[in-house]
């Protein structure tokens, strides 16, 4: 073997290691983005289903009740419902929830993430014809939102079956 061929072998190995590292990095990047996309799709689906259920109950007869159980993304720790006629003033589950709810006064539904999780955007929405049982009703979620809907005639009352936070 010639002397030049001996020096080219380490460069081949280094090139192979660099290409393998780039492939692994790109693979992890793609997998992470696909998981984030799946979580965002689940979040949008949850918000649409919640809005649809409240709208459906608004058009039923007064006194109609239903227990609602919706699957929710794992990043969400609390779903808070605010009565806009009172405005929230106490009982916030976290400091992030307090800051978010006080800054978005025109919205009545908020999605509060776990402290170590990134918030899904947007973390709030306005559900028409809905009022919570209390001026601020925060429901702890563990992959599910479980609430009761009741048609009160001119709005849908949303309440938690357990005690609120």
Description:
With 165 residues, the chain is of the alpha+beta class. It has one domain (33-159). The protein contains two helices and eight strands; from the N terminus they run H-E-E-H-E-E-E-E-E-E. The chain has helices at 3-58, 95-103; strands at 65-71, 76-82, 109-113, 124-125, 130-132, 136-140, 144-151, 156-159. It has a four-stranded mixed sheet with strand order 1-7-8-5, with helices on one face. A four-stranded antiparallel sheet has the order 4-3-2-6, covered by helices on one side. Strand 7 (144-151) and strand 8 form a beta hairpin. The longest helix is centred in the first third of the chain and has 56 residues, at 3-58. The protein is elongated.
Tally the beta strands. 8
The proportion of residues forming helix, as a percent range, comes to 25-40%
* Number of structural units classed as domains: 1
Proportion of residues in β-strands:
15-25%
Uncertain spans: none
Shape: elongated
User: Compute the gyration radius: what is it?
Assistant: 24 Å
State the distance separating the first and last CA atoms: 77 Å
Numbering strands along the chain, what is their spatial order in the largest sheet? 1-7-8-5
The SSE order reads HEEHEEEEEE
Category by helix and strand content: alpha+beta
Name the average pLDDT.
83
Per DSSP, the total helix count is: 2
């Amino acid at each position: 073997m010639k002397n030049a061929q001996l020096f080219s072998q380490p460069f081949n190995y280094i090139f192979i290691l660099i290409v393998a590292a780039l492939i692994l990095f790109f693979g992890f990047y793609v997998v992470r983005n696909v998981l984030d996309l799946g979580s965002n799709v689940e979040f949008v689906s949850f918000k649409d289903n919640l809005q649809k259920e409240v709208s459906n109950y608004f058009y039923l007869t007064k006194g109609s009740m239903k227990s609602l159980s919706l699957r929710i993304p794992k990043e969400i720790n609390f779903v808070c419902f605010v009565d806009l006629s009172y405005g929230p003033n106490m009982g916030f589950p976290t400091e992030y929830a307090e800051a978010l709810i006080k800054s978005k006064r025109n919205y009545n539904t908020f999605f509060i993430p776990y402290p170590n999780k990134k918030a899904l955007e947007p973390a709030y929405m306005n559900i028409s014809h809905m009022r919570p049982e209390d001026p601020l009703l925060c429901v702890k979620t563990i992959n599910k939102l479980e609430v009761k809907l009741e048609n009160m005639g001119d709005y849908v009352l949303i309440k938690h079956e357990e005690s609120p936070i």
